[in-house]
What we know:
mainly alpha; globular
Amino acid sequence: MGFYSSLPCLVTTALLLGLASTPLLRSADAPPTDLAVRVGTIDGLRGLLALAVFFHHAAIWHQYIIIGEWRPPPSRFYANLGPAGVSMFFMITGYLFWSQMLKTRGRPNFLKLYVGRLFRIVPLYLVLALIVLVSVGFATHWRLNESPFSVSNEVARWLAGGVLDVPDVNAYHASLISASVTWSLSYEWMFYASLIVTTFFARNPLAGFLLPLVGLITVILLFYCGYRLFEAKIALLFSVGMIAAAVREPLASAALNGIPQWALSAVAIGAAALAVMGFDGMYGVAPELLLGVGFLLIVSGATLFGLLLTRPARRLGDISYGIYLLQGPVLLLAFSFPALRVASAASPAVHWSLAAIAAAALTAFATLTHSLVERPGIQAGRWASARINSALRGRVAVSEQSVRVDPEQPQPQSF
Length: 415
């Protein structure tokens, strides 16, 4: 078996699904959510996507151990596996939030939405930021290698909740600790901010479909005219998710009605496999559209032969944010011992065995932080949004009462 065989991924995923079926991950069941729109297949998909990113970074670590460079591995499969997972995460974001805009006819409770996002994303992110900053401190022996102003600015960017790109800290490669997973959060925040404007299109069902479709077509035209901006490619992914939100119900009830479940699952897997294996890079129009086909089928009911609706898959999905966000420190710890590095570089079996152990440890860590950080954060967000809404309603009521006209007072004459 070659190092870049996909077999280690499949075996490790099967082992993790087995682990997730045990009572050890029971605390991951039925998490609270600040979204009104849930789709069972998406819940099961998230965990697989987070694991795809993990395997991508595990392959990068092997190369880093050998040549000392953090860059995509030469294998097309492993090089594309992580970006494919992140791409579908962007599609999920576009789908869920545009579904919410359409459901509320473009009049969502933005206060609840943004407070919910803040308390959903930031608490666990700050756990990662704390791990990174403390690790940098120990690695640099708590000595300043840069000016105090530079270090303060770098620390502040790391503590900004994922809104800003994060730099190295104190001349140390902080991205090695985080596995550079935080870059996607800034695009998530940009998408949330864009809803303030785009939500007006959701007040009309046709406009709610045409807006992302026009966005998709615009990106494709820009791409083929030579303007291959990375931000445009990310916008394409959000547009695909938004289109899926607009067409899911008629597609599932009409066009796909009567098609066997196994056929939908086979096409979804085939489209995703072709996107990963058929292109040198995932952030292009063709592979992203292929992933979009698979995603559209999944939100329309393709269960990947029942896998996405199983309890183990949904448990991994519930802790997927932790699996995604915390994989860097776990992989760093797994490959930080010199003897293990030597063995990993010499033997693919040793490397993937260590990666499998790291994956199990990461799953346990993500389950723990899900219970201790994510759930309390979501509940705190609900409490905060309810209190703010209550305070605002009370202020409005007082304001209305203060402007009521007293019938016993003389009134100004109107001319």
